[in-house]
């Protein structure tokens, strides 16, 4: 029961982050499972099986509220499913000693990307002409492979890339990526179930992650309304970087003196990014809304 509660808390935290950002369920929950001592392949398999439920619920909700572009879902999701199946097979054939630093490195890079993306790269809206399949298909293939081998990465790779184009409404980017994630979770799960048939998959872990995610979903929906998305992204990104840096330090057996230096650099950079983000958010809130200003000017004239 204690293990189930721990994994449920992990799923709760992961869904809280994912529901607020539209990404990072896999990255966050896999980081937690690796820190708990689970092997990389089993951790990624557990996360993707749990995502079958969370992504389905998320996709249905986005569809209900009109946040889904089905062209994006299929053009992105089908190649993503192929990449996820290949990634699951590749990860399952790696030894634990080789897979753990590989996965932690991917998660560390994704954590840095999430942190930097939300701290220093504000979105710029362009004409909403849609995204070409020439971008969607290879993006899906790469994101799906990274997601399966890294235990997460579909959202952190696909969502910011599509948002940065400015050619699709942000709500439809998040909704379409979340909806297509069901295809990625299903393909990765099939790959893991075939490749790990001789290993004991913990359904207790899967159930805990799923239960925690379901409980967190409505709270995340409320949280995203009161806490700036950029601040949540910086907080989650820094936590992912710090946790996976710890794993890599252990795997590469770095000398003790370097631990303090590495942790100090990460914490200082994290705090600085949070402070910078808070300052930017406050400055943006002090600026008058253009539509409101135009309306006030019209009344005065």
Automatic annotation (TrEMBL):
It comes from Saccharopolyspora hirsuta. Keywords: Cell membrane, Membrane, Transmembrane, Transmembrane helix. It comes from the Bacteria. The chain crosses the membrane at residues 70-90, 102-120, 201-224, 231-249, 261-278. The keyword Transmembrane helix applies. InterPro entries: TM_pro_TauE-like, TSUP/Inactive_protease-like. GO terms for cellular component: plasma membrane. Belongs to the 4-toluene sulfonate uptake permease (TSUP) (TC 2.A.102) family. This is Probable membrane transporter protein.
């Amino acid at each position: 029961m204690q293990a189930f509660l721990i994994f449920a808390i992990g799923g709760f935290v992961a869904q809280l982050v994912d529901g607020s950002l539209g990404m990072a369920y896999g990255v966050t929950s896999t980081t937690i499972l690796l820190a708990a001592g689970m092997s990389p392949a089993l951790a990624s398999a557990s996360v993707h099986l749990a995502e079958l439920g969370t992504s389905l619920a998320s996709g249905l909700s986005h569809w209900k509220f009109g946040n889904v572009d089905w062209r994006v879902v299929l053009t992105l999701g089908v190649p993503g499913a192929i990449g996820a199946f290949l990634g699951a097979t590749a990860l399952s054939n790696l030894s634990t000693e080789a897979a753990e630093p590989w996965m932690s490195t991917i998660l560390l890079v994704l954590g840095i990307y999430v942190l930097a993306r939300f701290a220093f790269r504000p979105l710029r809206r362009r004409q909403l002409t849609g995204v070409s399949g020439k971008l969607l298909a290879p993006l899906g293939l790469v994101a799906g492979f990274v997601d399966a081998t890294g235990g997460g990465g579909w959202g952190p790779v696909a969502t910011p890339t599509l948002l940065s184009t400015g050619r699709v409404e942000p709500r439809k980017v998040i909704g379409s990526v979340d909806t297509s994630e069901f295809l990625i979770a299903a393909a990765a799960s099939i790959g893991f179930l075939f490749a790990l048939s001789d290993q004991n998959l913990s359904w207790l872990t899967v159930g805990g992650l799923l239960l925690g995610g379901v409980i967190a979903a409505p709270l995340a929906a409320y949280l995203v309304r009161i806490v700036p998305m950029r601040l949540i992204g910086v907080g989650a990104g820094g936590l992912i970087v710090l946790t996976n840096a710890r794993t890599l330090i252990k795997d590469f057996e770095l000398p003790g003196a370097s631990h303090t230096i590495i942790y100090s650099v990460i914490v200082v950079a994290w705090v600085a990014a949070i402070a910078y983000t808070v300052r930017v958010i406050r400055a943006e809130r002090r600026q008058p809304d253009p539509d409101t200003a135009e309306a006030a000017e019209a009344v005065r004239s």
